[in-house]
Amino acid sequence: MKHILLPTDFSENSWNAIKYAIHLFKDEACTFHLLNTYTPIIYNFEYVLGTPGQDDLGDSIRKQSLEGLKNLEERITKTFGDNPRHNIKVLSRFDMLVSGIKEYISKNETDLIVMGTKGATGAKEVLFGSNTVHVFKHVKCPILAVPDEYNYERPLEILFPTDLLVDYNLFQIGILKDIAKANNSRLHALHVSTGNDLTFNQINNQLALEAHFKDSAYLYHEYAIMNVTEAIDQFQINSKINLLAMINNKHSFFENLFFKSTINQIGFHLKVPFLVIPSNT
Question: Residues in domain UspA (predicted)?
C-alpha cells in the first residue's frame, strides 16, 4: 500500500496534479491523502489572541476548507469511479503549506508528494514558484511536480541526470524504481562530462545505479562539457521524455539549479512532470 500526499488549494492546477497521481497509480493499492492548509486572510495579533469576533472568522475558514475537501473527494469519485485499490483520506490544517506538509509527514507514512506547479504563460511548462522550491528544499520526501494543464502520459521514457557523485543507497529512489517497473519505463541516466575521466567512486556509483534498475530498461548517456540545464534541454529535443527525475543533493548541481537563485520564481523549461528525490537523512 502506497501513501500519496496530495496538497491542494482547490485550484485547477492542484486538481491536475491529483488527476496525474490517480492515473499514475491506477493499478496499485494506494491511499491518497488530500491536504488543505489554510490561514485567515486577516491574520493579525487579535486573531492570535483569540479576540471575540475573530473566532467566527477562523471557524468560517475551517468550514470552507472542510467543504472544499468534501467536494474534491466527490469530484474524484465522479471522475474516476470506485477503484477498489484506492482509498481517500482528507485533512484540513490551520498552517502554512511547507510547515503543514512537514508536520504531516513527520507523523504519517508518506511515499510520495504530488503537487501542481504554475504554468508559464502561453506554454504548458513548469514554473517553480517560491512555495514549490521551499517544499523541494525543506521536505525530506520524494516530490513530483506536475506542470499546469499537463495531459497525463505514461512515463515510458524517464530522464535521470546525475553527476555520479552520490551513493544512491542513501537516497529515496525506491519510488522511482517502482514507477519505472510498473510502467515498463526506460530509464535514461545522463551524465554531463567535465572533460575528465570518471573517478573510481563515480564508476562504482554508475554500476550501482545500473544494478538498482536491473528490472527496467536502462540506458547510460554521456554528454560533452555543457551546462546541465542545456544538456537536459538538448536531450528533450532529441528524445521524447515523459518524466524528469533528479537527486536533491546539496552538494550537486541541483542546488545550483534552484536554491542559489535570488529571484522568487524560477522558470525551468520543462513540459513534463519532475520528480525530486531527497536523501534518507
Answer: 1-147
